Amino acid sequence: MRMVTISDNSSVCAGFRLVGVESCLAETAEELADLLQANIKPEIGLIAVTSSLAKKGEKVLEKYNETDAPLVTIIPD
After folding, report:
1. Which one-letter DSSP state was computed for residue 28?
2. In which band, very low, low, confident or very high, does the pLDDT at 63 lie, cut at 50, 70 and 90?
């Protein structure tokens, strides 16, 4: 099972990449929605979204809280 991080901060993305976690940069709710949809794959078990991006895309994240896999969680920046 793999983990993906989605953030609106390039430094956060770089930090996760340094420890081997795939990381994507999104600056708007629309970009967040596209990246979430693109990462709904059987091999991905966890998608971590940073809190500042989660605030921008609250409506988008509501949809993914109702699904079983992968788990979408919010992490601090």
Report:
1. S
2. confident
